[in-house]
Design goal:
two-stranded antiparallel sheet; 10 helices; globular; alpha/beta
Length: about 280
């Protein structure tokens, strides 16, 4: 992605990359890797919550202040419906993958949950939602699929009502540096540097699933990742006028990317982080 491109051309390239990545997620959705709809329905019906411990410590008392929660890149809706179980009165989910949105709708229909789902590039989230959202949530493994974090920050700002909050819980970009198969911490020979801004083709999950399902042909969707440092995300939200509420880093892993690394070694580094920012009242 050439950031010096003409603006209109750059916008079309960004959306084209998002569409291709979305086509990859459509394939992954059909393989069973994204979980089972009926299992998720029972999980949510029984009061289940798929959010991790650091998230639960920060997303407290939703019933008292969160009338509308909007999950950007909501996948199959499990995390969004977990926010409903935590007390959010209404749920909205947005995702580019039609099969994943259909899974989410099947779940909320079965549960009679107050949820609405939109299938689109999140950058095209409908404008009638502007200024109506109490909580914008984006969770584990979402932001690397976004090619323009400045537009994402503008989107968050326009969706939130005054005093509304954005909550990010994401994988730490440091994890992109390490050799995932090693039993000690060492740099992966092909990995990008921490400050790299280049989009990269996904070689692990979920890109590996797409390759397995379609082969290496030229028509195979390429899934593109771009790892945003927390400081870059914060800076763009600050640019829109948002105010910092909370930032911290955690040793918690949200997937088992280091199968051979002793836990005591893994725990010496951050693998996730949480960010909360607030839109001012005026």
């Amino acid at each position: 992605m050439n950031e010096d491109e003409d603006g209109e051309l750059a916008q079309e390239r960004i959306r084209a990359v998002h569409r291709e990545t979305g086509a990859g997620w459509d394939i992954v959705a059909g393989t069973g890797y994204m979980g089972d709809v009926e299992s998720d329905i029972e999980f949510i019906r029984n009061g289940g919550c798929s959010l991790m411990a650091p998230e639960l410590a920060l997303l407290t008392d939703l019933e008292s202040w969160c009338k509308r929660a909007l999950h950007l890149q909501c996948s199959g809706g499990r995390d969004a419906l977990s926010l409903w179980n935590l007390g959010a009165h209404e749920i909205i989910g947005v995702d580019i993958s039609e099969p994943l949105i259909e899974y989410a709708k099947r779940k909320s229909d079965a549960l009679r949950a107050p949820a609405t789902w939109y299938c689109c590039d999140i950058l095209d989230t409908p404008h009638h939602l502007d200024g109506t959202v109490d909580l914008v949530y984006t969770g584990r493994g979402a932001l690397p699929w976004i090619m323009d974090i400045a537009q994402w920050a503008d989107l968050v700002h326009r969706l939130l009502r005054p005093e509304g909050r954005v909550f990010v819980f994401e994988g730490h970009p440091l994890d992109g540096l390490w050799d995932l198969e090693a039993d000690t911490l060492q740099f992966g020979p092909q990995n990008a540097g921490y400050f790299s801004v280049r989009p990269l083709a996904s070689t692990g999950f979920p890109g590996s699933v797409v390759t397995r399902e379609t082969g290496e042909g030229v028509d195979r969707p390429r899934m593109h990742e771009r790892h945003w440092r927390p400081g870059v995300i914060m800076s763009h939200l600050v640019r829109t006028g948002m105010q910092l509420v909370h930032f911290d880093e955690y040793p918690d892993l949200f997937w088992d990317q280091f199968p051979n690394l002793p836990k005591a070694t893994a725990d010496r580094l951050p693998h996730t982080y949480a960010l909360t920012m607030r839109k001012p009242a005026s």
